[in-house]
């Protein structure tokens, strides 16, 4: 089978771990490699399954509808919207730790192949981290914190609002949402395409892709978070301001400008005065936004200082690799994340090699009426 990729810099950067360049063009031959023979202990976060190296896409990826949709995505979407598919590719290819059967069809072949090739190269080069691991850890962290927040509410009706939901399928995959109304917010084009792709997956009867929503309800709200009307749109679609709410902002804040991101955070903080509120969000530090100054805008080097004045309390910040953001996926003690964790957070460049200290902070904050 032939796939196409471009030669990658094997230098380990957050960009390398996170994203797939959009200009993926060269031709490569796919060779089924037997990774079992490798004794790269560093990479034992990947499954030992000998079939793993084969990227087998399900038949429904090749239906005309799915191909047409992904052609439109690739030709017409900008990098911000495309990030939804790239993130889904991460979940699809880290399926040994994330159960997201819809992720493959939502990601599309191009992004799956692209990330897959990077993972293969990482394995061959005995990289200290495998591409996409940061997405896997982030997803698992959000999953675990959503469940913990629901437990902390001790039952009762809860809303889970996913801002910049992209190709997130938590409403279909997390049993802990059974009593929750889930509301997904994203740009109209993204939600439209997502609904069509999910429908295709369900009607193709791919294994485990059933039309079963585990959440109590699921509502999709097309809204632009940079427009002032997004909260009104949410409210007119069933969001209840005084219901316990978990706000999930996974991979979204840094796509907004500094002022728009602050507006979103302020709106969520205001809800702390009305009802029990939990915010779960990831923040890039300033150095991370230099990866793509045209795409990444908002950053905070100190989210724990930024959030309390807005109205949040109990802010807890986690770095990738911390005990609650590890999930057994970062075995090499010399991995990039451990290196960053060993350096003071005020340090902007690695004293050993001058590389920018690019960090992704996982933050939970909460608030409730006094
Ligand atoms: C990196 S993806 C993350 C998607 C999802 N949260 C996940 O983790 O899989 C970023 C998402 O934010 C959405 N987004 C970016 N800017 C937005 C805006 N102004 N309004 C609504 N959604 C936006 C994009 O369309 C995209 O789906």
From TrEMBL:
GO terms for biological process: methylation. InterPro entries: Ppm1/Ppm2/Tcmp (IPR007213), SAM-dependent_MTases_sf (IPR029063), SAM_mthyl_Trfase_ML2640-like (IPR011610). The keyword RNA-binding does not apply. The keyword Methyltransferase applies. GO terms for molecular function: methyltransferase activity. Keywords: Methyltransferase, Transferase. PANTHER family: LEUCINE CARBOXYL METHYLTRANSFERASE, S-ADENOSYL-L-METHIONINE-DEPENDENT METHYLTRANSFERASE YKTD-RELATED. Belongs to the UPF0677 family. This is S-adenosyl-L-methionine-dependent methyltransferase. It comes from Kalanchoe fedtschenkoi.
